[in-house]
């Protein structure tokens, strides 16, 4: 009889330990799988996002510079105003704030979509960088980074 009681107590203790282990491990495994799924989704988004700066030009009054950027990925790009733009002479470039962030100060940048209502695949974005005065002649560097970190850079002379 003593062996039966001892065996029953060991079985109950084993079941209770298994419940404790399950209750502590299962949430971590579940959280890890959610994190892995989220990371896979972000990697997938980055792989489908690609941009290409196709052309740059100076305006007639030499106070604006235009960049044409094409979406060559397979995914629509949203929140364009949250993108980063670095621009300037190749040895002296800075981050240019978007017009709402600039608060009326120069330089600043703005954009229009040229051939679509959203920045879908094959749509072209025209970015206008506005200066208070002529930025001068030389070799210029432009780097445009969309919100998910995908970027393209471009060198040109004006």
Structural commentary:
The protein is of the alpha+beta class and 158 residues long. It has two domains: 1-48; 50-157, Immunoglobulin-like. Helix content is 32%, strand content 34%. It has helices spanning 2-48, 99-102; strands at 51-58, 64-71, 84-89, 92-96, 108-113, 124-130, 139-145, 151-157. It has a four-stranded antiparallel beta sheet. It has a four-stranded antiparallel beta sheet with strand order 4-3-7-8, with no helix packed on it.
Write the layout of secondary structure elements.
Layout (H helix, E strand, L loop, with lengths): L1 H47 L2 E8 L5 E8 L12 E6 L2 E5 L2 H4 L5 E6 L10 E7 L8 E7 L5 E7 L1
Antiparallel strand pairs: 1-2, 2-6, 3-4, 3-7, 5-6, 7-8
Summarize the structure.
With 158 residues, this protein is an alpha+beta fold. It is 32% helix and 34% strand.
* Total helical segments: 2
What's the CATH C level of the largest domain?
Mainly Beta
Query: How many domains?
Result: 2
Query: Helix and strand string, N-terminal first?
Result: HEEEEHEEEE
The share of residues in helices is 25-40%
Kindly report the name of the CATH homologous superfamily of the largest domain. Answer: Immunoglobulins
Largest sheet descriptor: 4 strands, antiparallel
Low-confidence residue ranges: none
- Strand order, biggest sheet? 1-2-6-5
Indicate the CATH architecture of the largest domain: Sandwich
């Amino acid at each position: 009889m003593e062996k039966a009681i001892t065996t029953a107590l060991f079985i109950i203790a084993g079941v209770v330990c298994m419940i404790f282990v399950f209750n502590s491990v299962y949430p971590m495994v579940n959280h890890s799988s959610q994190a892995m799924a989220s990371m896979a989704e972000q990697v997938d988004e980055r792989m489908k996002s690609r941009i290409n700066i196709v052309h740059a030009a100076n305006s007639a009054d030499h106070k604006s510079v235009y960049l044409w950027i094409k979406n060559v990925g397979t995914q629509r790009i949203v929140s364009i105003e949250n993108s980063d733009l670095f621009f300037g002479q190749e040895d002296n470039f800075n981050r240019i704030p978007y017009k709402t962030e600039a608060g009326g100060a120069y330089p600043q940048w703005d954009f229009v979509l040229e051939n679509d209502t959203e920045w879908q695949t094959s749509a072209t974005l025209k970015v206008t960088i506005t200066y208070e005065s002529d930025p001068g002649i030389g070799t210029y560097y432009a780097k445009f980074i969309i919100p998910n970190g995908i970027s393209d850079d471009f060198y040109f002379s004006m």
